[in-house]
Amino acid sequence: MSTDIVIAQTTIDDETKARALAHGAVDRRLAACAHIDPAFTAVYRWQGAVQQEREWRISYKTTRDRLPRLAEWVTATHSYEVPEWIVLPVEGGSAEYLAWVAAESTEA
After folding, report:
1. For residues 60, 64, 70 and 71, what is the CA-based torsion angle, rounded to 10 degrees?
2. What are the backbone dihedrals phi and psi of residue 69, each rounded to the nearest 5 degrees, phi first?
3. Which residues contact 14 (CB under 8 A, 6 or more apart)?
4. pTM above 0.85, yes or no
């Protein structure tokens, strides 16, 4: 059962920045909610070298319709040169919760 709800994710290197990205998206009704995962260690290759940094993951619950505006806002606001941006489909869930996400992700 496919839905119009998606989860979009990004990461960032500072908890204060993570909170700003989460609050900003919800305040602008680009997402119904945003979860900030506790700091974790990211190991990745960047500009030819292996890097290791602490990062926080932000997961946004939103609709497919709001996704382009959310992506545009996160990319413009984000401090990384190439921020992570991954979108996961929501294949099902509680009808009440999915309706709430849809309602809260709509422009007022």
Report:
1. 100
2. -70, -40
3. 56, 79
4. yes
Could you give the number of structural domains in the chain?
A: 1
What single letter denotes the amino acid at residue 7? I
Calculate helix-pair angle for 67-77, 15-27, nearest 10 degrees.
140
Query: What pLDDT digit, counting tens, does each position of 51-62 carry?
Result: 999 999 999 999
Structure tokens at 16: 């204060």
Give residue 59's domain range: 5-104
CA proximity to 1, closest of 105, 98, 100: 98
Provide the CATH number for the domain around residue 93: 3.30.70.120
The dihedral of CA 95, 61, 100, 73: what is its sign? negative
